[in-house]
Write a structure and sequence with these properties.
Elements lengths: L2 H5 E3 L2 H4 L7 E4 L2 E2 L10 E7 L3 E6 L5 H5 L6 E6 L7 E7 L5 H7 L1 E8 L12 E7 L8 E6 L12 E6 L14 E3 L17 H11 L1 H4 L3 E9 L7 E11 L2 E7 L6 H22 L1
Parallel strand pairs: 2-15, 3-4
Antiparallel strand pairs: 1-2, 4-7, 5-6, 6-14, 7-13, 8-11, 8-14, 9-10, 9-13, 10-12, 14-15
């Protein structure tokens, strides 16, 4: 199996009965960003100050984490240490479509598990992020929308929660209903982790009004999951990340990598040789 296929492998609804064969993919690892990115791969976009992002096999861990996971047998794991600068953010990059149309009609979703961390940020859970960029922009042409679970309802610890988002989720101009916050760009100020909270469709209108030239050519170029700064001592999981937009879409299943056939053969030979030596010494 080639290295690229080892990282991202398509899977079929016959096997998992969850995702259409044409739109599902298994992700086995997060890659460092060392140059141009490849669509389909997921990358360690911003993992710093002791944060970690890994893909784990949940078999044998027990409890809700294992028994209620949405797509067995693995999930992505994000951790931060007990300092405010610690963060763990991963992204997949592609041209997902024109920002105005995507924000106006896309549906997104994911499942997360928030491990109980006591009194330290008890409501923090993995956030979904959408990066917008205008290649022909005049300057203020980049930014990210962030969907935080705690702005959109109570976060239940030690349980899997599935999030379903559409273009009007959190809409209506009332911050109490939730929605997405914005980290700045397209002439709209950084919400710094909070209000204004708007639906995707409302953000499209806000960008078009504030920066019509840049937003007219803006594209959705990244979909991410993460724990940002000022969220110390976190251990959280996510899986089953998806989006659909017009005729396209994708679902990602995060699974711990399994050894390639050659590796399995070599391991079997090594174990067999060790058993032979042990028997000879015991004779």
């Amino acid at each position: 199996m080639s290295a690229s296929l080892y990282k991202v492998t398509t899977f079929c609804a016959v096997a998992l009965a969850m995702v259409d064969c044409a739109t599902g993919a298994v992700v086995n690892q997060f890659l460092p960003i060392a140059g141009p990115t490849t669509p389909g791969n997921w990358y360690l976009a911003d993992v710093a100050a002791g944060g970690t992002a890994t893909i784990e096999n949940l078999t044998g861990l027990g409890g809700n984490l294992e028994t209620n996971q949405p797509l067995p047998t693995g999930a992505a794991k994000l951790t931060t240490v007990n300092t405010n600068p610690s963060k763990a953010e991963v992204y997949t990059y592609n041209d997902f479509g024109a920002a105005s149309a995507f924000l106006g009609s896309a549906s997104l979703g994911y499942s997360y598990y928030k491990a109980n961390s006591g009194a330290i940020s008890p409501d923090v859970a993995p956030a979904m992020k959408l990066q917008l960029f205008s290649a022909g922009g005049t300057g203020d042409n980049f930014g990210a929308l962030v969907y935080e679970p705690y702005w959109n309802g109570a976060v239940t610890p030690d349980a899997w929660t599935t999030v379903a988002i559409n273009s009007t989720t959190g809409g209506g101009g009332n911050d109490a209903t939730g929605g997405w916050w914005w980290n700045g760009g397209f002439e709209v100020a950084n919400g710094a982790g909070g209000p204004p909270l708007r639906s995707l469709a409302e953000w499209a209108l806000a960008f078009a009004a504030a920066d019509p030239v840049d937003f007219a050519t803006a594209r959705v170029v990244g979909i991410g999951m993460g724990i940002g700064t000022f969220n110390p001592a976190q251990t959280n999981y996510f899986d089953n990340v998806s989006y659909s937009y017009l005729a396209g879409g994708q679902t990602w299943d995060f699974e711990a990598a399994v050894p390639e056939p050659t590796s399995i053969l070599l391991l079997s030979i090594a174990v067999g040789n060790a058993l032979i030596v042990r028997r000879q010494r015991s004779a």
